[in-house]
Design a protein that fits this description.
Order of helices and strands: HHEHHEHEHHHEEHHEHHEH
Structural class: alpha/beta
Strand order of the largest sheet: 2-1-3-6-7
Largest sheet: 5 strands, parallel
Mean pLDDT: 92
Number of domains: 2
Number of helices: 13
Low-confidence stretches: none
Distance between the termini: 82 Å
Helix content: 40-55%
Shape: globular
CATH architecture of the largest domain: 3-Layer(aba) Sandwich
Number of strands: 7
CATH topology of the largest domain: Rossmann fold
CATH class of the largest domain: Alpha Beta
Length: about 350
């Protein structure tokens, strides 16, 4: 019997030793990989899902001090939420931008939410009112109203903050992604120039990418996008403006406000914008049709029109602080914040 007990204890000890050694090797490997990614210039990033977006959306309701950022990638990359929070300490900053999707469904959802009476900063361009783009963000809004729960949202929020502490948890550095990339390129990926933060805002470090091909890609892609559909006629434009105006009026009636922001594009991109959606026929008509609307156009402000846009459409992270500070100054001039 003593021999049996001794043998059993020996096996238990060996098992624990093997487990501890394996855990130590795993942690050592993770530490080495994390250090390697850091030395190569990789930054942490997270993936935005509907539960994480819903967590942010929950913060917009029932708070008159909320400043909600609505739009797509331009406002996601262009406004620095850290600066907004440090400069406007009494405000709840709520990023609701969704990359690649126009925000008509989100402004509609905020108007329908009787608890919302905050300030909306909405990245705006005429194309977003095209009827075929109205439902672009509807899936996120429907998920929030019909399927999301506090638990799921909080879990996504907590998971995003944990993942952002480690580069090796980057959503584009999974094993399958690395194998596919290495098979195609025969090398390890270069650092990604866009990082998404746990609050779903983002930053672009364009020093990590060859900007000329990227700029040409954005311009070509936008031209193809413009040519894919016929431009709405005047009656459609006015009808769509009426919808937007009603959403804004609904939010105002509860004590909130909406400001439309036309973010910068560089000279070549702006000429393309003017070719398909001339300012005189769209933006200026909007201001004449809805004279009470609050709107800021980069072409009307020397500072906003002075920023370099590496890819023709987005700000570099080196400029977002000064850009955001100037937007804050303009909002104060409009007496929308103190």
């Amino acid at each position: 019997m003593p021999s049996f007990i001794s043998s059993f204890n020996s096996k238990i000890n060996n098992w624990w030793l093997t487990w501890l050694l394996s855990a130590w090797l795993l942690l050592l490997s993770i530490g080495w990989y994390e250090s390697l990614l850091s030395s190569k210039g990789f930054m942490p990033s997270i993936e935005v899902n509907q539960d994480l977006w819903s967590w942010n959306r929950r913060q917009a309701g029932d708070q008159s001090n909320a400043i909600v950022l609505v739009g797509a990638s331009r406002i996601q990359l262009g406004l620095d939420t850290k600066v907004l929070r440090s400069e406007l300490v009494d405000k709840e900053i709520v990023p609701l931008a969704i990359n690649g999707q126009y925000p008509m469904a989100t402004i509609k959802g905020l108007a329908a939410d009787e608890t919302f009476n905050g300030l909306v900063l909405m990245s705006f361009m005429a194309q977003m009112l095209e009827p075929q783009y109205e439902e672009m963000q509807a899936e996120y809004n429907q998920y929030y109203t019909q399927k999301s729960s506090w638990y799921r949202s909080f879990d996504a929020y907590l998971t995003a903050h944990i993942k952002f502490q480690f580069r090796f948890l980057h959503p584009l550095l999974g094993l399958n992604d690395l194998v596919n990339y290495f098979s195609a390129k025969k090398k390890f990926p270069d650092p990604f120039y866009v990082s998404i933060y746990p609050d779903t805002s983002a930053a672009g470090d364009y020093s990590l990418v060859d900007v000329e091909p990227l700029k040409q890609y954005f311009i070509d892609d936008k031209k193809i996008n413009y040519q894919a559909f016929s431009i709405m006629d005047k009656d459609t434009w006015l009808s769509q403006l009426d919808k937007l105006s009603k959403y804004i009026q609904t939010i105002r009636a509860r004590g909130g406000e909406v400001v439309l922001l036309r973010f910068p594009t560089d000279d070549i991109h702006w000429l393309l914008d003017e070719t398909y959606y001339p300012r005189a026929e769209f933006w200026d008509v909007m201001l004449d049709t809805i004279p009470q609307i609050k709107a800021i156009h980069f072409k009307d402000d020397e500072v906003l029109n002075s920023f370099n846009l590496p890819d023709s459409s987005h700000l570099d992270q080196a400029d977002t602080k000064s850009f955001t500070m100037h937007i804050i100054s303009m909002l104060k001039q409009l007496q929308l914040i103190e």
